[in-house]
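Can't paste images in this forum, so I'm doing it all in text. The chain is below; anyone willing to post the predicted structure tokens underneath?
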Amino acid sequence: MTFIFHPPKRIQKTKPDSSQGVLDKLQNYLEDNTGGVQKILCGFWQDQQDTITYQELRAAILAGCLSEDILKLWRQDYSRLVTNKLQDIWKQAMEAGSRSPKILEGLPFSFNTQEPGVMDWIQSRGAAFVTSCVGEQKAAIQALLSKKMVESHTVDELARMIRPCIGLTEGQAKANARYYDTIVKNLKKEHPRMKPESIQKKARDASLKYAEKQHRQRAMTIAQTECAFAYNQGADEGVQQAQEENLLGVVKKRWSTAGNENVCDICRALEGVEIDMDTEFDFKGRVLFAGQKRMPPAHPRCACAIEYIETSPPVFGNIPAIDVSITQSDSFREYSDEEINSIAFKTETIASKYVSTASKWSGNMVITMMAWGMAQGITCIMGSCGTVILLQGIRQRLQLSCMNSSMQGRPAITQAPYTAVSNALRSPLSSLRQWKSARQKALRLLVPAMMKK
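Text version of the structure:
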């Protein structure tokens, strides 16, 4: 009897909607944008291959190394690629990434691509990209200039082998050379009468097609990795900008993977790890630029993302003084239209500064603030206590809902021009005492007599 043992399958864990949401947004962005970057890179490498002459390649073979003039031209080529193409691609990816954190949804926030954090990252990433690509390209060609390669091939043959490998990594170039040599060996064995020139041509044609495939693979790897770098950097920079504007308080970062069998060991160990905004994740790998380990990707083609979690609200200073005398008596009675108009008149100037449209909590109001703390308090009380803000024409008037005993503890919902606001105000209260206390708090926040005499 034969027993067949199959390795256990990894069970994909169900991820929270917030974590899955950021992963889906990243994946959708990569699927929509990496193809264009891949084409740019493949075209760039083809131009480099066409530009270098066989005379220059023969000179490099005889010297055993590439000349400094060729390396200088490559550095200039990659610098122009960064300036003319990749900088805009990185910037667009950062803008898309800045819209991905859920904690930024509904905030009066606009991502600024001219901030020093954005410009410095693009500049440092560009410099690192040029250095890394030129170094890898040099190592790839240098591997084909080794003593073993020179001794086993003619100068002209090796020059024709090297040219299609420009743009590949060292490992890819070596693989291409082995593929060429294998075809030559098999053809000599299977067709002993075939001319050496014909054998070399067939092997060269086959290795050229293989090199094209290798270029497409490497271009896609770079495209996905670079877009992921910029996308995640944009998300991080967006949260930081929101913190600088005092729209967010203390925030933590949580590493989020796809959670399936395709996740590598490096990322699997990082799943769910939470750290502070300014700290780095602990994982192995070559550091390409400063701050690389603050967020994904942890390796080429990494599809991980960061979930940002606000652990405490922002702290605000200079919140206007509030005259609470209006709440110190008869706070549970119904106010007359004249009193409401008087209150609205006193608070109109202040309300126009703070309240305009959708809150990050309910999605039904947007709060624009010089004092976000007041808007946060207003919104929380609106969601739990039933205070209604009416926006009537140009004037922002505040009308307070009164208690309706037939609703058994629920505050009455006043008909408002914005039906969505009313839908957000249906949280039940367990007692009249809670409602009285909550309404009193609402009055303190919503009716600040800021124009004190």
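DSSP finds 13 helices and seven strands in the chain. Residues 5-12, 319-332, 348-453 have pLDDT under 50 and may be disordered.
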